[in-house]
Amino acid sequence: MAAPVRPIVICGPSGSGKSTLLKRLFRDFPNRFGFSVSHTTRAPRPGEVDGREYHFVTRDALLAAVDRGEFVESATYANNTYGTSFAAVNDVLRRGVNVILDIDMQGVRLLSLANTQPLYLFIAPPSLEELERRLRLRATETADTLKARLDAAAQEMAWSQTPGAVDRVILNRDVEEAYADFLDALGLTEELKKATTTAEHAS
Ligand SMILES: Nc1ncnc2c1ncn2[C@@H]1O[C@H](COP(=O)(O)OP(=O)(O)OP(=O)(O)O)[C@@H](O)[C@H]1O
């Protein structure tokens, strides 16, 4: 089955559930999508592997690479700098799979991917209070980084409501419903149903 041609851009506040939905997608559709691995100056969280979730780099190295024109977009978010390199996107395209980018609001505004028109999906938490609760439960943030993420989240939520900012806002209240909406946006609902039915028949 041919892969959809548009690059897929996932954005939304930190803690809104982007990684949660992507993990499910990669589990249900292995070898279909390739995640463009961003660079970041933030420290790895427990379990994160350099080159898998992110390329972990120093600020100087990242800014120098941006200056050399090696990045599709870069932005500073919650006191850390993040960016998508052309090399990361090309690594995925070379594998002949669909590229998925996880980038923040500023990056979305700056993104330029030659002649392609990405599909922009914004993952939204039910409320800022619930977002804070989830980020506290995830236990990856200090008081400072939590505050920075929540401040940024309020702006991102407002931005997502502006006409034309994104193609679809996916509300992540219940994760099953959010995932169903996510698959629908990607045009994959029927395919997953078929795969599930085939697997049930085979067992
Ligand atoms: N629908 C949901 N209900 C309750 N908890 C959720 C839901 N979706 C995600 N979570 C939890 O919220 C936390 C944040 O989710 P996740 O790490 O996927 O967010 P993210 O958008 O990828 O964040 P970041 O941009 O900081 O990497 C995780 O601990 C995750 O398990």
TrEMBL record:
Protein family membership: Belongs to the guanylate kinase family.
One Pfam family named in its UniProt record: Guanylate_kin
Keywords per UniProt: ATP-binding, Kinase, Nucleotide-binding, Transferase
Alphabetized GO MF terms: ATP binding; GMP kinase activity
Entry-linked NCBIfam families: guanyl_kin (TIGR03263)
EC number: 2.7.4.8
Keyword hit for Cell membrane: no
A cellular component annotation (GO) from this entry: cytosol
CDD domains the record matches: GMPK (cd00071)
Source domain of life: Eukaryota
Cited SUPFAM superfamilies: P-loop containing nucleoside triphosphate hydrolases (SSF52540)
Limits of the Guanylate kinase-like domain: 5-187
Official protein name in the record: Guanylate kinase
InterPro entries to which the protein is assigned, alphabetical: GK/Ca_channel_bsu, Guanylate_kin-like_dom, Guanylate_kinase, Guanylate_kinase_CS, P-loop_NTPase
